[in-house]
Amino acid sequence: MTALRLDRVGVAYHGDPVVHDVSVGLAQGGWLAIVGPNGAGKSTLLKAIAGLVPHSGRITVNDSPTESLTRRQRATLIGYAAQNPVLPDRLTVTDYVLLGRTPHLRPLARETAADLALVHETLDRLDLGDLAGRELDTLSGGERQRAVLARVLAQRTRLLLLDEPTTGLDIGHAQALLERLDRLRAEDGITVVTTLHDLTFAAQYADTLLLLDRGEVVVAGSGRDVLTAARLREHYSAEVEVLTTAAGHPVVAPVRPA
Known about the structure:
Elements: E1 2-13, E2 16-27, E3 31-35, H1 42-50, E4 56-61, E5 64-65, H2 71-77, E6 78-81, H3 93-98, H4 113-125, H5 141-153, E7 159-163, H6 171-188, E8 191-195, H7 199-205, E9 208-213, E10 216-221, H8 223-226, H9 229-236, E11 240-244, E12 250-254
């Protein structure tokens, strides 16, 4: 089953195209990492999939064209987390994660005991159970990122869109977050689309990389196919060596110019 399909998707701001003619498909349970240099259109493309900006072309989620969906219907299909989400300081972790249940509530209805149980289950899966009563402004960067992921998971959607989920995290916390996400993907069969600046992490966790530059698709494929020194020199203006781990994953290593 195709969980997500983009057919010639484009986005323009004030008449200026920033993303154009993007076509890609993703199977149920897959992981797509959108990569590219700054200003390539990665976050804009993610917002188009989430229905946050107008777009041309066609976006289909679980065989449903998103253009025909109401906002509430879209929110039951797609979970989205911005790169720098606004987190109300005095809200507790539990109350924040409960916001993920909003699309499933009737107008003016309150969360039920079942909603609260689902939230506590989500917190436990992300090792946030001991922090349930803590206010958001008391959390570390890694804990806040896990809280954001928990809020999205509480929506119980089949498609997760995460814009730079490792922003501000050191390598250990970033790896731990991606490992949790990959485990949840395997356990629940959810489909994941992320933007990632770290090309090595993108290649190690995502099934498919989509390289954008100036709003256009350069290439899509596995990390080994997409990440070449010549391609990164051309599109990132970076001098790198692409090494290989024992597991066969590419590692992008910057090289200081001679």
